[in-house]
Design a protein that fits this description.
- With about 425 residues, the protein is of the alpha/beta class.
- It is built from twelve helices and 14 strands.
- The protein has a seven-stranded mixed β-sheet with strand order 7-6-8-9-10-13-14, with helices on both faces.
- Helix 9 links the parallel strand 9 and strand 10.
- Helix 2 runs parallel beside helix 11, helix 3 runs parallel beside helix 4 and helix 8 packs parallel to helix 9.
- The N and C termini lie far apart (about 50 Å).
């Protein structure tokens, strides 16, 4: 009986030690998506029992044993982006140009073991199912790895197809925070998402500028819905729930009805979440209506389109940007000069990130050869390219292969964007937090 007693005591002790170790692990500072403690969901109520997406998903399938082909006269890299019949065509063209420049530079340096790279271009039109068909076409073409896209729906659908074809995807344009939450180990994202932008905007608007009554006007697309959802969640946890949210459909040009409603709510700041053209039209119309509140915006405002259409009323607008195009970075300056010479225009956000993403693809191919699974392995191992210094700065991946690199703020002064790093969100206590959050 005594031995049974000692055994039972030992088992209880071991169980308590295990629970203690587990609790300590759960209380660690490993946070999904680089989320600050101060805005971590439910942080003011109780600690979540589990943190999601902090360990990368492994791929244990076959394919690494396949030998490299010996009869190739070109190495095909895929591209999927909005090139026709889409309001995102200007962004898609930037992405294509950045990809082409990287390919052309690689070929000028000798290609892959003397074999030239070829970019296989595919257009997406933002329709359900269409993106999957394009991924299948790339598979039939013998593409080894591909880059794209921008539209949220396109990227989500294409990701499912790339899982089935086992062909690595490098996303350089879709900011949807849920994109890498699919637990599909065949993608990395080389651009910061709207969660990071939302954190930076909320901190700047509420903590640094001291606003309380913020109204939002956004596109009714997934881009607007998901982007504002992240900002709104942080706003609530900081104790400043959004006062009003007005929406409009893509293609609209008259926003006076929505702006009249916002004007009646008497906000002390306005946030616009829309494309460059829509943002410029909204900004001009609200100023014409006598609304003088500070205006903030999503990162798509950082565009020559926005500046040309908004004109002088753009001065004072503050938004976020996924990199600093004015950084003192020799590689960035060289890229900007080469891009301008090649395409006759200056590169913008989507061109620069596509250039970085395509160079990661090319370096991965050079590292492991022509094997889809090995290309996937090296791009997603969180070691080989972790901290890669691209023209957009240092690329940092979290465990879901989401880029959580530095976010910048951009303010329009005298008709030009001035860039500065977004401040790290500090702990400010919970005195203003809403009950239950």
């Amino acid at each position: 009986m005594r031995s049974i007693y000692y055994l039972a005591t030992y088992l209880v002790f071991a169980f308590l030690m295990l629970c203690s170790g587990t609790a300590k692990a759960q209380e660690s500072k490993l946070m999904y998506g680089n989320t600050p403690d101060s805005v971590f969901p439910y942080n003011n109520f109780q600690k979540a029992y589990k943190y999601h997406f902090v360990e990368p998903i492994e791929f244990h399938g076959a394919g690494r044993e396949k030998p490299e082909p010996t009869n190739l006269d070109e190495v095909r890299i895929g591209f999927l982006g909005p090139l026709d019949n889409s309001p995102l065509v200007p962004l898609g063209q930037q992405m294509l140009n950045g990809s082409l420049l990287a390919i052309e530079e690689a070929n000028a340096a000798g290609g892959y073991k003397g074999i030239p790279y070829k970019l296989m271009e595919h257009n997406d039109v933002g329709l359900w199912g269409a993106a999957a068909n394009e991924v299948i076409k790339m598979d039939d073409e013998g593409v080894w790895v591909w880059l794209g896209s921008i539209d949220d729906i396109v990227s989500h659908v294409a990701l499912r197809a790339t899982l089935k074809t086992e062909m690595m995807m490098v996303c350089t344009g879709d900011p949807d925070p849920t994109f890498t939450e699919t637990n599909i180990p065949w993608v990395i994202r080389v651009i910061s998402d709207d969660r990071q932008s939302g954190y930076a905007l909320a901190d700047y608007i509420y903590n640094q500028k001291g606003h309380d009554r913020v109204a939002v006007i956004r596109t009714n697309s997934r881009y607007g819905r998901v982007g504002v959802m992240e900002f709104a969640g942080v706003a609530v946890r900081l104790g400043h729930p959004i006062r009003m949210e007005e929406r409009f459909n893509e293609g609209e040009t008259d926003f006076k009805m929505q702006l009249e409603n916002i004007k009646k709510s008497n906000p002390d700041a306005i946030l616009i979440w829309a494309s460059a053209n829509e943002s410029a039209l909204i900004l001009k119309q609200l100023r014409e209506m006598g609304m003088e509140q500070p205006v903030y915006g999503s990162d798509r405002m950082v565009s020559s389109q926005f500046m040309e259409l908004a004109g002088d009323v753009a001065n004072g607008v503050v938004t976020t940007c996924q990199y600093n195009p004015n950084a003192d970075n020799p590689a960035l300056k060289q890229f900007q000069a080469a891009y301008t010479k090649r395409f006759g225009v200056e590169p913008e956000v989507f061109a620069a990130h596509a250039y970085d993403g395509m160079n990661l693809i090319l370096k991965a191919v050079e590292e492991v050869g022509l094997n889809r699974v090995l290309i996937r392995d090296v791009l997603s191992d969180l070691k080989t390219f972790q901290g890669y210094e691209g023209v957009t700065g240092k690329i940092i991946f979290d465990a879901s292969w989401n880029d959580i690199g530095e976010i910048f703020m951009a303010e329009v002064e005298n008709g030009e964007f001035k860039f500065f790093p977004a401040a790290q969100m500090k702990e400010r206590g919970h005195s203003k937090a809403m009950p239950g959050y």
